Amino acid sequence: MAGTNGKGSTVATLRALFEAAGLRAHVYTSPHLVRFAERIRIAGALPSDPQLLALLEEVEAANGGNPITFFEITTAAAFLAFARSPAEICILETGLGGRLDATNVVERPALTVLTPIAMDHESFLGGRIEAIAAEKAGIMKRGVACVVAKQGRKAAKVLDARSTELGVPLIKEGEHFFARTASDGGLIYRGPSVEWSLPAPALAGAFQYRNTALALACIERLSRTAPVPAFPDFPPGALGLGVRSVEWPARLQRLTQGPLVDLLPEGWELWLDGGHNPHAAEAIAQHARSWRDKPLMGVFGILSTKDVDGYLEPLAARFHTLRTVAIPGEAASLSAEDGATAATRHFCLDAKPAPSVEAAIAELVAAGSAPARILICGSLYLAGTVLSANS
Questions:
Q1: Which of 57, 228, 342, 383 is deepest in the core (most CB within 10 A)?
Q2: Which top class of enzyme applies to this chain (predicted)?
């Protein structure tokens, strides 16, 4: 699975759907938030530290001192673990791009998936959306169907050309499958062969309906419409259970307990999101329009290598009050002072630096005259430190 945003949520939804059907899933994702082992899920379970260390040492010994990147050795360790434990499905998320990604060594996958493609990692993938789309399209395999989220015009043109070149059937959102919100808040999915009425996704955010639909399109293809279905007996009753049981930390996650939550007065809410590019910020801003019952306050930290202005442009003005922080332990973090300056530039009228997340929350609580909703956002690295501090 490749794309710019939504990969993690779609992977998590797919895993939940398969596990709800009683099937075992190997899953490889990145980056981790708190523990390195989060990257490798072996038939549903995270490896212990000794197990993970043994895998990495075995791969390092086999490599024999040859040049290898951090991500490559991690990927090899994951594949080694997967090969030694039975499972019905293996779900792989690319680390960066797709064409040259270490995960892109599977010659004949059952299916490939492309989530929405947007500008990110330009220094590695290119400064134009067409170049980034071409790198992501590199996961397509000749004759293997690809489930594709709705794309912008330029990215879609690149994907269409690549699919034609390789004879790849594209299963497109908005053309072959659709999702809409039911009157009760549930999700209605319609694909080439089915229409499913399901509960609302467990993950918060209107955009999760689209991520869920992408995962459901994969299930439909693998169980219903593929020439030779890989899971012809997939139980439809598992879909509702799976949709309700998805867990994926730091994606519009409400924190309901822990030391940081304890800093809040009654009636306040604390939310966490690790999105770090303009496309992610636009999705958050769109969802924030539905948050009308309480003022929205924020704690913001981001890497200086990211498109800071692109991230803040759709989102900064949504905050009634904002405190900016440097990401602990990250040399490439944007300073709290520069973060506040950037937020002010994008019409956040009360943006000030704070020395830490804890201090920022305390300041926001002191500034609030009524219960508010606090969103911590800007970076997966910041999200990881928050989850660690709140555990």
A1: 383
A2: ligase
